[in-house]
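Exercise: predict the structure of this protein bound to nicotinamide-adenine-dinucleotide.
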Amino acid sequence: MDALRIGVVGCTGRMGRMVARCVDQTEGCELAGGTDRADCGAIGRDLGELAGIGPRDLIISDDPAAMIAKADAVIDFTTPEALLRHAELAAQAEAGYVVGTTGLGAEQQAALERAGLHTAVVQAANMSLGVNLLLALVERVGSALDGDYDIEIVEMHHRHKVDAPSGTALALGRAAAKGRGIDLEKAAQKVRDGHTGPRRRGDIGFATLRGGDVVGDHTVVFAADGERIELTHKASTREVFARGAIRAALWCRGKPPGLYTMRDVLGLG
Ligand code: NAD
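Solution:
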């Protein structure tokens, strides 16, 4: 089988560079090219050099249409605004579209649904195997424990992260809510400040920490009178997200159009 040609949008970002490096090192995959914003400061540079793997004769451009037309799959760790165009182009090219970008609003989510009518789209707030296992575990624990167990989700990320709570924390909240048979939108307490009054039974609380170079820590706490359960995942390198995204891109090959999750990719049901 021919190597899967993977295009990296946002290729000069923290994740973009890591994805480019990992694609280059993954058997059965090759880089189709990389794009970023016109003002990113790296347009015209060699993608391989930027990713630290040596020259690859692939020039970074600000033209995603031309790059995506040459790709079998596209990996997107950019911004919600940028995603709208990338989703449309991936759908037009019928390229597998793997979306790790977080902080999406209703407009972006609708764009992914639309793209999923034309091509295989995998969307995950967290591409790591460990977190996707954690999601399954949290749903299970959520269904086993009743409202006597208060659910709180604590996350910490590096100082550059711009959205909060993290997409993974929200996904963990949705998993806990699903297990418990409630709606996260109604139960979520994303901010507490000042005289909040006592905790409301059934709420799912979030706490956000930002600092240093923390790649991503998440803990889900189930706290009752007399005991508590804490389920924790810690990522120590961005490589786990890049490898997960590449696995998703490979999985997309030959799949019917649809909007899929990492649980589909990993066969976690
Ligand atoms: P970053 O700021 O380092 O990189 C984002 C890149 O996107 C930058 O290079 C930026 O120039 C580029 N970009 C912005 N607008 C663009 C446009 N219009 N066209 C092309 N490129 C554009 O951020 P990061 O740490 O790499 O994270 C990126 C996103 O991925 C965030 O939403 C983050 O939360 C998410 N993320 C998800 C996972 C996961 O597993 N799903 C893991 C890590 C990060």
